Amino acid sequence: MRMNTRCCALLFAVLGLSACAEVNLDKAAGAAAGCEDPSEDNLIPQAPMLPGRSCMACHRQGGQASGAVWTASGTVYGSGSSACNSGGLEGVKVELADENRKILITLYTNRAGNFFTAEPLQYQKLIARVSKDGKIKEMSSPVPSGDCASCHNPTGPAGARIYLN
Ligand code: HEC
Ligand code: HEC
Fold it and tell me: What are the tens digits of pLDDT across the range 14-50?
């Protein structure tokens, strides 16, 4: 797998091919998170990829993207629609804090609405808050995992994607 990825990186550089590293939603359990089929652009292995999906189904040890393991990741939308490929909200501030409300990390969503980090996060209870233009939402219970989309999807325990409207 590692070899494969390196070869791909080389091909990418030499031939200008995109979507070369293997990104396969069907081979990562739970990754699709109830989203519609991805567009070709969604599969390009860069920061705006696969909005709404469970990033950490792949971005984990032993996953398809084991070279880029995230400790927290997800997507923020501008409405409660369940579609994934569009509607992501850019420039949302995502704050993760510990049980003493000390901010551990502040992230901003990209043009797809995605945010992610590989920073080690140390906490007993994680608090998650998203805000933009005076709108703010905070998860009232502690966040048990940084893989936000694993719960924030129409059939997950949160029942909806993360959104600000
Ligand atoms: C179906 C699997 C899969 C899912 C789901 C997925 N990715 Fe990826 N991602 C990959 C693969 C494979 C690569 C290429 C990794 C490599 O080259 O080692 C990649 C690469 C990346 C990169 C570039 C990393 C680097 O070091 O160059 C970023 C950033 C990224 N993904 C963000 C995300 C975000 C954010 C999400 C969720 C919204 C996500 N990915 C969802 C498979 C996935
Ligand atoms: C284990 C499942 C689970 C995970 C993982 C999870 N959430 Fe949640 N989230 C929920 C549930 C359930 C609710 C609704 C009840 C509540 O607020 O506790 C919620 C509510 C929220 C809300 C408030 C939504 C609203 O409309 O008021 C925000 C914001 C939020 N989560 C952000 C996040 C972020 C950011 C992450 C990832 C760092 C995350 N959540 C990970 C289950 C989860």
Answer: 544 544 578 999 999 999 999 999 999 999 999 999 9
- Rounded to 5 degrees, φ, ψ at 146 are -75, -5
Q: What's the confidence (pLDDT) of residue 8? A: 53
Contacts of 42 (CB under 8 A, 6+ apart): 49, 50, 51, 85
Six-digit token string for 44: 């390009």
CATH topology of domain 2-163: Immunoglobulin-like (2.60.40)
For ligand 1, whether the C-beta of 75 sits within 6 Å is yes
pTM tops 0.90, yes or no: yes
Structural domain spans, the chain? 2-163
115 lines ligand 1 (CB under 6 A): no
Ligand nearest to the CA of 142: 2
Q: Is the CB of 23 under 6 A from ligand 2?
A: no
